[in-house]
Amino acid sequence: MTRPIILGSTSPFRKAILEKLAIPFVCCAPDVDESARNNEQPKDLVERLAIEKAQAVAKNYQHGLVIGSDQLAVVDGMVLGKPHSHEKAVTQLKNSSGKVVTFYTGLCLLDVESGAYQSLVEPFEVHFRTLTDAEIEHYLKLETPYKCAGSFKSEAAGISLFKKLVGDDPNTLMGMPLIRLIELLRNQGVDVLALANEHNGNR
């Protein structure tokens, strides 16, 4: 019996990324406190939260594979959250100008029946150009990325802010490292291409 795949997230970005694989899955919101612990490093935090999200969602199922994920953006050792306002977005982009913002994405794949899981942290670097105040204003008016960590959308006009991107998988920047996820699924005996063909009627 094919184990169902459950995405432990309601993020439209992660859902859209996972849909690229053309495999069947359902989404379930994890109920997890995302607060950092004392002196917890960003890499440790995103891995712990990815695991805890998968474990929280697993409680709702008797069998299946649960995907948990979490992401943080860091510049100069400081975590960049979602700005939620124009003023904070301006500050974030000014602080990122000419610097490297590192995104850490925690990923966990948990087998509901056994409770066993695989987890990892995938880094991705965004190298910013030196931005003028006018460029920042033009960009924010264009895309209003106030619900995006770091105040930009890399999949859209945000690409105009960068000098280069450094990482193994561009999907990582949007919250889901597909190459690593496929590896974890393969470790669980899931052939993504075969599953996609079966799901889409291409037997």
TrEMBL record:
Catalytic function, reaction form: N(7)-methyl-GTP + H2O = N(7)-methyl-GMP + diphosphate + H(+)
Organism: Neiella litorisoli
Keyword Ribosomal protein: no
Family (UniProt): Belongs to the Maf family. YceF subfamily.
Cross-referenced Pfam families: Maf
HAMAP family: Maf
Underlying gene: maf
Annotated catalytic residues: 70
Broad enzyme group: hydrolase
Full protein name: 7-methyl-GTP pyrophosphatase
Signal peptide from the UniProt entry: none
Record-annotated site: Important for substrate specificity: 13, 71, 155
